[in-house]
Design a protein that fits this description.
Layout lengths: L16 H12 L5 E3 L3 E7 L6 E7 L7 H11 L7 E6 L7 E5 L7 H10 L5 E6 L9 H5 L5 H24 L1 H8 L5
Parallel strand pairs: 4-6
Antiparallel strand pairs: 1-2, 2-3, 5-6
Amino acid sequence: MGLGNPGADYAGNRHNVGQMVLAELADRRSASFRSHKANAMVAEARTGIDGPRLVLAKPNSFMNLSGAPVAGLLRFFKIPADRLIVVHDELDIPFDTVRLKRGGGHGGHNGLRDIISAIGTPEFLRVRVGIGRPPGRQPAADFVLRDFASTERVALPNLLADAADAVESLASDGLTAAQQRFHAPPA
């Protein structure tokens, strides 16, 4: 599940990095998104020839109302909450960093808050894509709804590729192996 806001006005916003990662995954697999009755755009793919099936989904709702589409898709595809992978922006992680975890709170992220409320548990996998903190005294809500800065846009393709790799690793290898790969210091 890639979190973000619908529409062209939000497409390049930091808050939409989750949907950008899912677009990267779909492109890798030549998968096309189609409208789904759960109020989401959905594409299905595999991580490899014999790899696990991925249901790539981007809610059509605004970020703060992501819970209903997520709950509907989990029911429709019969996916248990502990197999859900949510890709989202994270203010508390430096830009160009990917971190993985299972469970925890919402940390003030309203999309996560709504998902936790809708599915009744925080125990799902998360690919946390670092967007960094706002500069100066800029409110966080304004910062996440702005496009990436020109210097960030240079590094953005690599960040999206890393986050897409993390999703594939979570699905194929599990949390511990994926964390060891993506949390290790650069060699």
